Amino acid sequence: MHETISSRYSQYLIDEFNIDPRVLEITADAEKKLEDRFAEADEICAVCQMKVLRAFQDNHINATHFDWSTGYGYDDPGREAVERVYASVFNTEAALVRPNIVNGTHAIATTLFGILAPGEELIEATGAPYDTLETVIGKHSDGRFTGTILDYGILYKEVPLNDELDIDLDAVRKAISDKTRVIAMQRSTGYDWRPAISVESIRRLTEMVHEIDPSIIVMLDNCYGEFVDIHEPTDFGVDVMAGSLIKNPGGGIALSGGYIVGRADLIERISYRLTCPGIGAECGLTYGQNRHVLQGLFFAPKVVNAAVKGAMLAGVIYDELGFEVMPRPMAPRSDIIQAIKFMDPDRTVAFCQAVQAASPVDSYVTPMPWDMPGYQDQVVMAAGAFVQGSSIELSADAPLREPYIAYFQGGLTYEHSRFGVISSLDTMMKKGLLPER
After folding, report:
1. 88 with 298: CB under 8 angstroms?
2. What are phi and psi of 239, to 5 degrees?
3. What's the CA gap between 136 and 374, in Å, rounded?
4. Which regions of 159-283 does DSSP assign to beta strands (E)?
């Protein structure tokens, strides 16, 4: 067995977790093949860690920033310090980082409603967005007014990806009209069968749009993408970007919340949507979360590094077992997600259940497909996390629809992410759900 998995570790898993020795051999072989890719991920982590450290130092973070106020939250120095740090990390003029942004979809929706007005046009440049954002747009509306983007008279277009599963620059160029106000992108895989959009592709689109019309706003859903690369999309001119604190940047410590970073004028407009016109960013308690948010951000590069390595491991192993995976093994990565096409509902559910069984919280619970709010299909979701719904912690989820794709992500440590892969492989092997080799 290769040195990546020691004999002592292997024996412990065999004795205490009843793991089949063949699973550990497969895992060790995969880790050996990934040594160079792991080294690249470690270098990215080191750069991102120093970038975060510099932001803390430049903004003179001190113990008083962990305190919190009451009531309206006027002049909260901790809240303001958190937002300065986020603006520094993402190289933007301003930021909103708030616990009352309930998830990534809320952060994205708040951004879009803040920068779009009736009669203006939104173009989604990366094809169909994530399921919950389709609900925000109003693509599946039953005719009732629910406050969707389409309900407010905002125009909407979608530009599919090209044959290489990348942004179709020519098609986006042709889609732009005199009503176009925002061109949006979704960096991560979401529930689609494609790799995450690379920072380089985001840069090319951003430069093209600003060359055509500098007044058009380039907006990015950055969920699952933070600290996967040494550069963030805002380094290359993305005007406004949003994400969730219980994904990458929260480092598994932030208890809730979301962030929006970008140009100061856009952040001001968005703040009026987050609270109300005239109040904007001046009010809003942080409910004692400033320390959690800052400490989580400080840990985030290392936590993301662990998740990226776990995703790589899952991709290599399941590819060698005969399943289609996305991204392909050894391919560059732009998010922490590994998609595995199981082509079978039983395999898909068993995979997610095994990930749940590998969790520190609710490991004894068996997740089943259910009707989650905002989704058009039933979803099976493994999330035995310290923070409810945290997908930077070890997790897996899958919409129960053909071709039955499971999405694996997270792990606060590489050792735990690796065990999630080991658990899934062991379970499927013992249930006879793996292809014959």
Report:
1. no
2. -75, -35
3. 9
4. 180-186, 217-221, 240-244, 258-262
What's the pLDDT tens digit per position in 73-103?
Answer: 998 999 999 999 999 999 999 999 999 999 9
Could you give the 3-state DSSP secondary structure of residue 84?
A: helix
- Provide φ and ψ at 81, rounded to 5°: -65, -45
Which of 236, 229, 234 is closest to 301 using CA atoms?
229
DSSP per-residue codes, 364-384: T-----B--TT-SS-EEEE--
Do 340 and 325 meet the contact criterion of CB atoms below 8 Å apart? Answer: yes
Q: Give me the amino acid identity at 275.
A: T
The rounded radius of gyration (Å) of the Cα atoms in the chain is 22
Beta strand 258-262 pairing with 240-244: antiparallel
Distance CA 107, CA 98 (A): 10
d(CA 159, CA 177): 13
Which amino acid, one-letter code, is at 174? Answer: K
Give every strand in the sheet of 324-326, ordered side by side: 324-326, 338-341, 405-409, 395-399, 379-382
Contact 185, 167 (CB under 8 A): yes
10-residue averages of pLDDT along the chain (437 residues): 69 96 96 97 98 98 94 94 98 97 97 98 96 91 90 97 97 98 96 95 98 98 98 98 98 97 98 97 95 98 98 98 96 97 96 97 92 82 93 95 96 98 97 86
Alpha helix (H) ranges present in 219-324? 264-274, 290-320
How far is the C-alpha of 206 from the C-alpha of 185, rounded, in Å?
Answer: 10
Peptide bond into 360 cis (omega under 30): no
Residue 149 burial by Cβ neighbours in a 10 Å radius (0-12, 13-18, 19+): buried
